[in-house]
Amino acid sequence: MKYDLKNLFDPITLPNGVSLKNRIVMAPMTTCCGYYDGTVTQELIDYYRVRSQNLGAIIVECGFVEHRGLAFPGAIGLDSDDRIEGLSHIAQAIKAQGAKAIIQIYHGGRMVDPKLIGGQSPVAPSAIAAPRPNSPTPIALSAEEVDEMIDKFGQATRRAIAAGFDGVEIHGANTYLIQQFYSPNSNQRNDKWGGNRDNRLRFPLAILAITKQMAKNYANDKFIIGYRFSPEELEVPGIRFDDTLYLLDKLAIKGLDYVHFSMGATLRPSIVDTRDPTPLIDKFIQQRSPALAKIPVIGVGNVVNKSDADQALTHGYDMVAVGRAYIAYPDWADRIKEQQTLSLSINSDQRVALHIPEPLWRFPLVDSLIRDVSNHAKKFKAGQYQETVSDDNQNEFVINVELGNDFIKNMTLQNADRLDPTTITHFNEIKDRIVTANSPYVDAISGATSQCEAFKKAVSKAMSKSNKAAILAEGGNPDEKAVDIVVIGSGGAGLAAAIQAHDDGANVMIVEKMSIIGGNTNKASAGMNAAETQFQQKLGIHDNKELFYNETLKGGKYKNHPQLLKYFVDNAPNAIEWLDEKGITLSDITTTGGMSIDRTHRPASRAAVGGFLISGLIKNINKRDIDVMLETTATEIRMENNQVVAVQIKNEEGNIQTIKTKAVIVATGGFGANPQMITHYRPDLANVVTTNHKGATGSGITLLQHIGADTVDMGEIQIHPTVEQQSAYLISESIRGGGAILVSKAGKRFVNELDTRDKVSHEIRSLPEQFAYIVFDHQVRQENKAVDEYLAHDLIVQAETIEQLAEKLAIDSHGLATTIARFNQFVTNQHDDDFNRKTALRHPINQAPYYAIQIAPGIHHTMGGVTINTHTEVLDRQQQPIKGAYAAGEVVGGVHGANRIGGNAVADIIIFGIQAGTQAAQYIKNH
Ligand code: ADP
């Protein structure tokens, strides 16, 4: 095929006669920076302003045409006249430099999350949910509403014109409403808007017609109208490329100024016919109709350097849209003109200088580009370091780690020839993650944790060696180290404290005795309790702090320390916000035992909270370049003149080092995995399995006792009712919170499953068999990702009928069937006549497959620990603060009293972790 050579910097004239100064446009990208109500912010205006030099046009991210149309949080609105003023600032900012300002008009249709529209059902051509997990079933628009919708698109165009935009792009892509009308998958109407292809075409045509009409009424013939399309759909039935060409031809006949592919790469081939490698743009050029051939076509996807743009133009695109590279380089066009070679990354200290609004900075699209270069960056002696590490199965890996002066350059597997291909794939994936994050602290690949930990360890070791070498080379003594604050323990409490102290200006270091970050927090499953949060409000959940306080107090048998509990309850919503600001959003809500209201916040994916939390906190640790010393145990806190002056640490090789410090934050977790301590305080719990990770040995309590700390409630040890005994795997309370029941070997319920942990555990231990089964159905499984994990670990018995399930469990089948039928009746009546269960009567257990897991109680949480005040200062036996000593998390006693409520541990570690960081940093400033 022969192509014309177009020059990226040549002007181009659109069919309406408008000339663009060159062929570069900034691609529409979701910034999530609108206010919650869709108005625009100053940050957003500045973001566009600085990117508007020397390019043809900026296509501003999509504006929703009505209140049910927004497909993501922070979307900007074109749905009412009040928006015009704010939008006009964006238009002016873009036009001031001679670029054309175009804005997308869209409606998300069935892709809208009900949570974004006040819990309403979204609307669509037909009442068919999108074929994606957890998609809501939309309401079909009536014929009258379709007419109204067209009018709304018209009004949105009018507003765009009034705001001073040079044009609009009709967003017919990304499976939003316009595409939904054209798609045989989502449009199964039988009126004039649905059925055959020509009928399905009517809606896009009607949108074009009204847009043109509005342009005619309110603008002039120079108003630009573009159309964005997704070339194919995977679904069957679904839009195929020839359908797209058909649609574009019809639109072209009516007159358009450009069409715009929506794809991840300019030269992407078909996603439907995966055997055909021909780029779709080649097919487009070959097969387009004469009408369509007159319309310029924009390509998008992975354009970073001039060669990418030229390649796109060579294949027939008339213009190229540049996305992420424009976020990283606001003066992209100038740099390309100067023939710079760009890499798609953003230095972590550049957010403000690059005018990237905070919400966009945290958006995965951008987050993945950020390269850490903070000032505290550890200095390395550049070079190659060879490390030998092993995984849990004694597989040995010889890894060469190449370090630059302050960054990780590369890593290579020296003994690759002796390893299987999967290992090599894992290695390459982890290498990419490490090099991109410029840190060994990255998420492991699920199912290959131990291998990944070994790869990461090689990097940590190399870094530590080369750091020492660098210090020696500069004439320093690597064994003499001083920091403002040493944080002991890298669970949720330690990480939150370190982040906060760093943000308050302190120089922080974390020591962690295990080889991985995260402690027991990694295992947290249900979520994080908080009352009166924005997320509860969005879901229409009315809660109040007083109730939360009282329920926690009741659950804790009135033994909780009142001031600590009050601080906890009052600050829980702030802690949820604090996490959200750090990209750790817990927006879905469930419940746990002992709570009367849904207040257990968890990730939107409903995944277990622990891994999600630690992974998000680690990203924040990496961004701040906070040093984490793994396999390093704090062995002593040193005092002089009654204040903390140093922490002694011991590394993996047994080397002892003293770190000078002014303050220490002890966040070492509980002692649930220390049988001696458990039996010392509670002989009755000897030989009970523990759900805790190996590091939960209570060493922080001992460290603090040595410097005079008092302890409280040491005998209050929680056993969790639902632990699978062979694996000591904890079966999350969210399963019961999601609707599961507990039954005995007789197939009978025996307790209110959502009662507090101590009561449920007691009832199980009182059964003759001393174990029980947690039983649930497909509906509960669907809402709890944790179930996938249990299945993967082979902990679950499943069956197609309740009778089969009973047979497999060898329990009374008639008993089980009767119990479930009776429970289902309670769900219908929303009243549990037998055990007065008041929460989580969510759905009847009636959808196959059915699941059961045999469980019994296991040691789970140690409520007791050192004493602190609400400033997290560690108190001595006279209840006086020990200067420079702070503690947070499970190492502390008092918050939970005699029994901890599910979801309160995560809240505890974050709330008091933040407070410890704040207070310790403040202490440093004053000393
Ligand atoms: P929390 O939930 O309170 O944050 P976690 O159990 O999640 O507690 O985390 C505590 C971390 O502290 C664990 O990773 C544990 O290995 C670590 N740890 C415990 N004792 C020490 C110690 N003496 N030195 C360093 N790390 C420690």
From TrEMBL:
Residue stretches making up the NADH:flavin oxidoreductase/NADH oxidase N-terminal domain: 8-340
Enzyme nomenclature, EC number: 1.3.99.33
FMN-binding domain: residues covered: 427-463
Cofactor binding description: Binds 1 or 2 FMN covalently per subunit. Binds 1 FAD per subunit.
GO CC terms of this entry: membrane
Spans traversing the lipid bilayer: none
Domain FAD-dependent oxidoreductase 2 FAD-binding residue range list: 484-906
Cofactor(s), names only, from the UniProt record: FMN; FAD
Top enzyme category: oxidoreductase
Reaction catalysed by this enzyme: dihydrourocanate + A = urocanate + AH2
InterPro entries reported for this sequence: Aldolase_TIM, FAD-dep_OxRdtase_2_FAD-bd, FAD-oxidoreductase_2, FAD/NAD-bd_sf, Flavocytochrome_c, FMN-bd, OxRdtase_FMN_N, Succ_DH/fumarate_Rdtase_cat_sf
Keywords, sorted A to Z: FAD, Flavoprotein, Oxidoreductase
GO molecular function: FMN binding; oxidoreductase activity, acting on the CH-CH group of donors
Keyword Flavoprotein carried by entry: yes
Family the UniProt entry places it in: Belongs to the FAD-dependent oxidoreductase 2 family. FRD/SDH subfamily.
Name this polypeptide is given: Urocanate reductase
Species whose genome carries this gene: Candidatus Schmidhempelia bombi str. Bimp
